[in-house]
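Before a colleague's protein record goes any further, I have to sign it off. What it holds is a sequence and that sequence's fold in token form. My question to you is simply how this chain folds and whether the tokens agree. Thanks in advance; the entry in question is below:
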Amino acid sequence: MQPAPIAEPGATMKRSETLDLQWQGPASPPLRIGILLLPSFSNFGLASLIEPLSIANWLAQCNLFQWTLLSVDGQPVPASNGLLAGAQAGIGEHSEFDACVVIASFDVHRHARNPALKAWIKRQAAFGAVMVGIETGTELLAAAGVLDGHPAAVHWDNLQGFQESYPRVQACAQLYSLGRKRLTCAGATAVLDMVLSWLDRLAGGNLAREVAMHMLIEQVREPQVQQAEGYRRNLHAQAGKMGRAIELMEQHLEEPLSCEAIAERVALSRRQLERQFMQHTGLTPLKYYLSLRLARAHNLLQQTRMSVAQVAASAGFGSLEHFSRAYRAKFGCAPSNDRSQSLSAPVMRQPLGHDRQPLAI
């Protein structure tokens, strides 16, 4: 997946200590990027990384960027969608890069226990490479200790577990972060925003804008833009008193409030609160509340090493028996059997209900 060499190079770039690149003459070498793929990585994330760089090479008529696909053992790597990516090298070959990108999605805790992988990440960071984490690739950078004290953009579905596991990292729910020699991205479409913003810094805004034009991207989102959490955020923004009720639920997961207490705090009767929840979510307030608590438990079980008892307490369950019964009813397995965020593991679906119409305030 290397870009084909071009016989007549035009303007290329020169690296500085901070990797802010400037247009220079044809003798300047391309930026060398090592892209480490972990099993079940996002093929969309890989394409979103490579395509803007490939278009930049084409427009500049020279190799501004040169990349190498890596795997831990040098063997092909399956993506989460089943496609197989051929690696050009393994991490044991001791190549040095100007930038190293780690792309991962599932089973990140298993990968984070690999000492060779963490040693490779630490070595590349020590050599001065810009370290880039995409999706849960950011967690692998954190596990190797190279994100301590740095901001990190983490997908909202993994943010709670990440914060629990890596308190020294400044994790946030923004789309991506562009720090000094540290780039992180929550994943999905935000990868395109991050790469185009990075390209803007490296090679200037004109090239970045032209690449965006060819990709039919009208506007690149800023890094600090907050991730949308889908339906729940819409409820917060549009549902008025019901949105406030949901905020109260989210603020009191460890010590749940009664339905009567929530209704009183938002100035509704219990019947009015139940009617609004049924109308917009298809769930009673208590069932919606339970889904929020089980969502926290599900994330902490899959994304941290907290004990089942600790997770139960964090989700507001005073009885392990009650917790296990509610968890099994929701996910079809005992909490102790749901400790890995893999493709085959239970999934927490969002309670979208049945109302597709805008919510009345």
User: Anything to note?
Assistant: The longest strand covers residues 31-37. DSSP finds 14 helices and 13 strands in the chain. Residues 115 and 144 are 9 Å apart (CA to CA).
